[in-house]
Amino acid sequence: RDQYGDQIAAQELDCKWVRLEGVVIDQFRPDAHVRRHPEREAFTSVVGGVDFAEGGGVTAIEVVGWMGTERAWAIDERTFEGSEQNRLEFWADSLMHLTKMYGVSAWYCDWAQRDFIEELRRHGIYGLRDAKKDKMLRVNTMNSMFQKRMDGEPGLYIDPACERLLWELPRWLWNTRGQE
Questions:
Q1: Cα(33)–Cα(26) distance, rounded to whole angstroms?
Q2: How far is residue 47's CA from residue 100's CA, in Å, rounded to a whole number?
Q3: Over the stretch 161-171, which tens digit does the pLDDT of each residue have?
Q4: Most exposed residue of 20, 39, 79, 133, measured as fewest CB within 10 angstroms of its CB?
Q5: pLDDT tens across 125-154, in order?
Q6: Containing H/E element for 142?
Q7: Which residues, 6+ apart, have CB-to-CB distance to 95 below 8 Å?
Q8: Which candidate, 119, 141, 143, places its Cα nearest to that of 131?
Q9: What is the per-residue pLDDT across 42-69, written as a single tens digit (0 to 9) for each?
């Protein structure tokens, strides 16, 4: 039960019909989960995520450092909202810079724009991988990562530098069809 939010637990574990409403990532608490990240050497691996907004909205790059398998830190981000002509250069430069800065081993990409991903590859960006497409799996994973581990600490922290992520988390709402 602890790995689900209240509404999903009621539906999936108690077999109750629940209309998913409200905040999608309901386990996030700024007072518990916002903390400056440790030095790069503390991470056993660093990966990144690339999310292309639907309809031309804000697109984001998130960098996540892992400390073993139980704890992660969102440590840096880049966001982009602007004209198409500068987009490829901006993203290629950002991905290269973040890869070198943090030692990113893989970039998990939203494949909504496959042609753009292929263009990034042609510009020398490697380690681009397909992200999970199942929204409920991603939501459940995020919510479970915010929960406390055996040591009493959350599994996921977010650095204050990740301003867009911190702004968005409490604003991601379920729509009337039960999807984000």
A1: 12
A2: 12
A3: 999 999 988 88
A4: 39
A5: 888 887 766 677 777 888 889 989 999 999
A6: helix 135-145
A7: 48, 50, 61, 107, 120, 125
A8: 141
A9: 999 999 998 876 655 557 899 999 998 8
